Amino acid sequence: MKVAALLAARATRAHRKAWTAVFAALTLTSLLLGAFGLTLASAWSAHPRVERYAGADLVVAGDQTTRFSAASLGDRETVSAGLTERVRIPRTALTAVRAVPGVRTAVADVEFPVGRAGRSATGRPWEAARLAPYALRTGRAPQRAGEVVTGGGAGRVGARLTLRVGGRDTAYTVVGVADGPGSAIWFTGAEARRLAGHPEALDAVGVVAEPGTDPGELAGRVRKALDAAGVTDVGHRADGDPAAVRVLTGGERGEAEFLAAAPARGELLAALGSVAGAVVLVALLVVSSTIVQALRQRSHELGLLRAVGATPEQLRGAVGREVTRVAAWAALAGAAGAVPAYLGLRALLDARGALPAGLELTLPPLLWPAPLVTAAVTVLVAGIAALIGCSGTAKLRPAEALRERAPGSARRITGLVLLFVGASSAGAAVLQQGATAAAAAGGAAVTMVIACAVLGPWIAEGAMRLLGAPLRLFGPGGRLAAANCAASAHRLGAAITPIVLVTAFAGVQLAGGATMTHAWDAQARQVLRADLAVRADGGLPAGAVERIRQVPGVRAATEVVPGTVLLARSQLGAPELERLPVFGVTPERLAHTLDPGVRDGDLARLRPGTVAVGADRADSLGARPGSTVTLRFGDGQETRLRVVATYQRSLALGDFLLSREDLLRHTSLPATGRVLVATAPDADRKAVTKALARAVPGARAERDPAPVRGEAAEQALAEVVSVAVVGAVGGFTVIAVLSTLALIATGRRPELRLLRLAGAGRGQLRRMLCLEAAATVVTGLVVGAAVASVPLLAFSLSMAGTLPYLPPIQAAVIVSVVALTAAAGSLPPVWTTLRGRYPRHVSPSGD
């Protein structure tokens, strides 16, 4: 133990420069692991904010979760997904709750969209305001159907408001101004039930308990009363998907208000888990290669220690202590920076709108020490890498320890097997869709990068055979570079690996999103045939489409409303619930405003109870015109729809086109739709635009409308994830390339001095080093691009039906970063060696 400690202390002082790169890599590893650990913990404990029901002790609401079960490997497996549309409960729930002992007040709550002066607002009964509680600032509560209370000071008592509800404009008198959001408008209870359009169904019931009543105990009594009354959710749910009404307490009350928060939490956890996995993998590769390279530069020193009698245990102990000492300080430094990095990632998520309204990412004090745990993991990873790095020398007999060993056949076989597995995974991605295809493509990229790291020496040897002839064209420096590269394939392979890593990972992450966006844009331009679009922020009035069609010069008009559905099916034997963006349309003369690229059937037959299906999705479901498909709407209700057509351009329009009436029937707060207008060939578009504005009061007509494109709701989150992955991989790679090339260059100082003594000029040696760096960069970029192209090709063909696409600017950034980093790692460490006319001596250590 004393010998190992002495060796470790001496080696740490003697090789401070070599350990600097290892320290930087371990610091970044600890920082990123700590930041993502805090973010994952924050997402795990996240919950919807409680606002409208903050004054209620309990909230009775529908079950906002849908479930699907299927047999998987002989067992029954169930998956669930959050619902983003309101699941309503019957009005009988209010009667059952009011009869429960301990209930002081039970208030029925409904919510519906309201258009106010061209802006979107929400309407609710005034009785529900007490659940927040919101109090009157001025005026009084509404007592008649024509009276309202506005929120947030947005209005004055006595003012007349024209509100649009259900497509109809009605004048109301403001009788009070209350606290709360400015977009809130409160009606009398009877008027709110009428305007909501479902008088026998409620959004929720807020419960205020009697003083001294325990909320948990009261929740149990309310649960029993609801079960005894047989109260279930409104609507037809799928078999195996129970429709039990929920009784929410504490932080759960926010789930009845912010419906998108719970599903977004699951998506955030999945995305952050994927990022954390990629970061951990890259960290393992970079840290391991950096430590191994640092120890490889000292292989002769370690071999000499074995030759003079050091035991394998002493050697391992010395290296382990040396690495652990460096890793401990680096891990603590990274842990200190993890909290600022976590706050920065939180700010990025908020700035890009990647989180829905109402989702609070909380971090309990108990989880703040999480970076210390990830710091310990970092030290453990460094220790394992150190043992691997010195294991070969430690096992050799002292007489063999000084001999340079070539990579064995076991390494080559392992690399080839990994390469085959990666290519097979990419081939499987071509046959899949959605998240399964993306996961298979990502797995292929990771496996092939590891394979290239294992096969580094042979890749370098093959590359030098190709580049040797071009290098020799650059004179004596080029011939020296060619000879050195050919003789040091093992060393060059270590330098190529981090370049392959950054090129492959960054290429897959950036090109994956860019390919989908490029294909979306191309299809969206092909789909749109309309010349104009009509929209109103508060919703279009009733009969707007019919009035638009009667305007002179209008050839066709189609109302388009976005929404989502869920598709339940078994994927590779496992149940899966996939959320898909869709559109609801009016089919009359649809071909003049939209061109979905119909493959079979007729879109003119699209009516309530029917659906058109994208060609790829139809093939995977075995659907064709005349068959049926089963979908779940955003509120969890299941329906069987008859297929009337299949179409090609599903990237832009989504996998399903539904009737507008079908989609709106299952949408609690419909998103603002628009009417696409195709003008006659001889019509004056400017005159038609003015006529449309007059025909639909409160609406505006847009020339050159934006393309129709069905984008997934989590696109902003995916963009943030890509930025995080590319940034993390880029940081690791800069450190890895700099450290690896700097360690190699430092170890070559005796060689360069010897070449100087043999007569090589400084200019020749500089040219040799530049050409070697260029050969390393070219080989790494080409191999990395080849590795990235295989999974990217599989992903783009399965998802978009196109070739991969990477914006030229992003490709130039990747090449520039790699080239500048390689130059910085290759040349500065040997500047001192190349100074002066002749070197004074040749030191075996390179110092």
Can you describe what's shown?
The chain is 51% helix and 19% strand. β3 and β4 form a beta hairpin. It contains 24 helices and 27 strands. With 847 residues, the chain is of the alpha+beta class. α12 packs across α22 (762-799) and α14 (489-527) packs parallel to α22.
Entry keywords:
disordered C terminus, single chain, 19% strand, 27 strands, 6-stranded mixed beta barrel, alpha+beta, 6-stranded mixed barrel, 847 residues, 24 helices
How is this structure best summarized?
Helices cover 51% and strands 19% of the residues. The protein contains 24 helices and 27 strands.
SSE diagram, text form:
Blueprint (H helix, E strand, L loop, with lengths): L1 H13 L1 H29 L2 E2 L9 E4 L3 E8 L2 E8 L6 E2 L1 H7 L4 E7 L2 E5 L2 E7 L10 E4 L7 E5 L8 E6 L2 E11 L5 E4 L1 H8 L4 E2 L1 E6 L5 H15 L16 E3 L12 H36 L2 H9 L4 H40 L7 E2 L9 H26 L13 H22 L3 H21 L1 H17 L2 H13 L1 H39 L4 E4 L8 H6 L4 E18 L2 E12 L12 E4 L8 E5 H7 L6 E6 L4 E10 L2 H4 L2 E4 H6 L8 E6 L5 H11 L4 E4 L11 H33 L1 H9 L4 H38 L8 H19 L4 H4 L13
Parallel strand pairs: 8-13, 10-12, 20-25, 22-24
Antiparallel strand pairs: 1-17, 2-15, 2-16, 3-4, 5-14, 6-15, 7-8, 7-11, 9-12, 10-13, 11-12, 18-26, 18-27, 19-20, 19-23, 19-26, 21-24, 22-25, 23-24
Helix pairs in contact: 1-8, 2-6, 2-8, 2-9, 2-20, 3-5, 6-9, 6-20, 8-9, 10-11, 10-22, 11-14, 11-22, 12-13, 12-14, 12-22, 13-22, 14-20, 14-22, 14-23, 20-23, 22-23
